[in-house]
């Protein structure tokens, strides 16, 4: 198994308890949730390392000008600090690395996926008092500054380049072939950001059959979020069976079939057939 290596079971259980607690708090802390994801992925990330990452975000925020002005001034200040001075940005190669989805590694490497770089932008800007939020454009996450009628977008993956309306339209058209809709520009909820990060981790693992361990913890963290797709239970069951845990995998398949039966009896029966096949592997 290639690094990063997961933590031992006792540490993992504690991290998951804290993740679920934070996700259900009145105001979930995005950086804390991302660092808990990182600690579940990387057993080398201990409490001191998590604290150091928060201190790094604080230190970066302390280097921003005091209230530089309107939304565009904030976007430019973040670009100059993070993109130009510190070199945070992304490249095509970053999509091939699990570390690109782990906040503590992104802070060290100054490289990552669009959504993780956006988390850095948001957390640094938020600490400095900026009106900042994530914008989940289809296929490409960016950050927004200011209210809707004055909104300025920036692309941390491109070093914080300030986007024009035409730039955003091109990003959406390139990802979906469809036009930009106003609903795509609304602020992203922190828990939706975390779920999207975990979806990226699952997508990374899906192309690497030897890393079902990564796929499994990403699914199981997703299931701890207050709102998540029901189909994740089916995905977890399949992973358990794939990893040789036939008893728990079959039980999870049966539980999912009970949920599906209310809307699609034929699909439920197919899932129950998979559960029977999983149990048969024990013979």
TrEMBL record:
Pfam families: TPR_9, Transglut_core2. It comes from the Bacteria. Residues 56-199 form the Protein SirB1 N-terminal domain. InterPro entries: SirB1_N. Belongs to the UPF0162 family. This is Protein SirB1 N-terminal domain-containing protein. It comes from Streptomyces regalis.
